[in-house]
Specification:
Pfam families: HNH, RRXRR
GO molecular function, one term: nucleic acid binding
Protein name: HNH nuclease domain-containing protein
Shape: globular
Order of helices and strands: EEEHHEHHEEHHEHHEEEEEEEEE
Organism: Tengunoibacter tsumagoiensis
Distance between the termini: 21 Å
InterPro entries: HNH, HNH_nuc, RNA-guided_IscB-like, RRXRR_dom
């Protein structure tokens, strides 16, 4: 047995004759979820999976950088700065850790399916996003706005806001007689406020100081940062997949949507992947389960706890169990979320949500099904929206 989920056996001897059929792998690419399906020429679906990609890498790296900066300020006060000598930051074709993780998640899923089934063709659903149009839809009717945006003719956004407001405080309308003007973020940047002109307002220094002191209250609504990160990432993921997946065909979301509508299927990642794999034909589902996968980190950055980090957090095994190991408890399969030195375990589903079990499970009451890896997987019944076990 090579793999328990999905159940895979390896033959000791190869048969003299093998009979295989051409299979097509359809991949619904994404920045948060990947859907994949395998179909034959008759449209029979023999494999379905959903992969949840990591989106926490940037957050964890910022926390790590914050802790490192604090530590080095205390322990290496007079050491010469060495932050401009990083080879990785100047190498060509470099991607951020988040992008590397997402691209590799797609490639790994493709390799995973190819190791199970004789795939003869791969179809990728990709998308190209116009970030300018997403931010300002008016450019679709007025093409000249691509070259002449809001800041056209001004040195920067600050100069535009001052001109827009007539170089006058928008709170007191010049009653304070203060000539010192400030361009203020209505929603503070510390609260994820945007740097766009819709979140900027001209205030005199008197009103600006009063605002931060709490004596002045603005009633004008601001704007938080819009999230175009996923659209930007998908533009790069598309290029890398078409370059690295040899012989891959490309299709687009509007084509898949029309095919799915004609087939009468609801919108899910697996249904999209099935329509991609069948190239628009009606899919016939031979499998009733979906292989749910979730990418997880190889380890935890935090190694210690306590006021002065005096207590080390065990990263290895405790009584034969590690974090994210799949275990069987009360005839159900769970994943280990946390461990206690007293022998108790916190269990979770594949969605990462804690499972409340009474009494709290102990190591001796469960059996390890499989060791952890950089993704966890579990079979679930088709049609269920959540990652619930069979």
């Amino acid at each position: 047995m090579i793999r328990r989920t999905p159940f895979t056996l390896k033959l000791f001897t190869m048969p003299e004759k093998s009979y295989t059929q051409p299979l097509t792998l359809g991949v619904d690419t994404g920045s948060t979820m990947i859907g994949s399906a395998v179909a034959n020429e008759q449209g029979h679906i023999s494999y379905l999976s959903e992969v949840k990609i990591r989106n926490d890498i940037a957050t964890t790296m910022k926390a790590r950088a914050k802790a490192r900066r604090n530590r080095r300020n205390r322990k290496t006060r007079y050491r010469k700065a060495r932050w401009l000598n990083r080879r990785n930051s100047i190498k060509t074709g470099r991607f951020s850790p988040t992008m590397r993780s997402k691209i590799e998640a797609h490639l790994r899923e493709i390799r995973f399916v190819q190791a199970l089934l004789p795939i003869s063709a791969i179809v990728l659903e990709t998308g190209t996003f116009d970030l300018h149009a997403l931010k300002n839809p008016e450019v679709l009717q007025k093409k000249w706005l691509y070259q002449r945006g809001i800041n056209y003719g001004f040195a920067n956004t600050k100069a535009y806001v001052l001109t827009r407001d007539g170089y006058q405080c928008q709170h007191c309308q010049g009653e304070s007689k203060d000539q010192h003007l400030e361009v203020h973020h209505i929603v503070f940047r510390s609260q994820n406020g945007s740097d766009e002109e819709r979140n900027l307002l001209t205030l005199c220094k008197t009103c600006h100081d009063g605002l931060h002191a709490g004596t002045v209250i603005l009633k004008k609504p601001g704007k938080r940062k819009g999230n175009l990160a996923h659209a930007t990432q998908m533009n790069s993921i598309r290029v890398q997949l078409l370059q690295q997946v040899e012989g891959a065909e490309e299709t687009f979301g509007f084509v898949t949507k029309e095919h799915r509508f004609l087939a009468g299927l609801p919108k899910t990642h697996t249904n999209d992947a099935a329509m991609i794999a069948t190239r628009g034909n009606q899919p016939l589902f031979q499998v009733k389960t979906v292989l749910a996968k979730k990418c997880v980190s190889d380890g935890d950055y935090q190694q210690t706890k306590g006021v002065r980090s005096e207590r080390r957090i065990p990263t290895g095994k405790i009584k034969g169990f590690r974090k994210f190991d799949k275990v069987r408890h009360r005839k159900q399969e769970y994943f280990i979320k946390g461990r206690m030195s007293t022998g108790y375990v916190i269990l979770m589903g594949i969605d990462g949500e804690k499972v409340d079990l009474k009494p709290i499970p102990k190591f001796e009451k469960m059996k390890r099904v499989s060791a952890r890896s950089s993704w966890i997987m579990q079979q679930r019944i088709m049609g269920r929206s959540s990652y619930s076990p069979i």
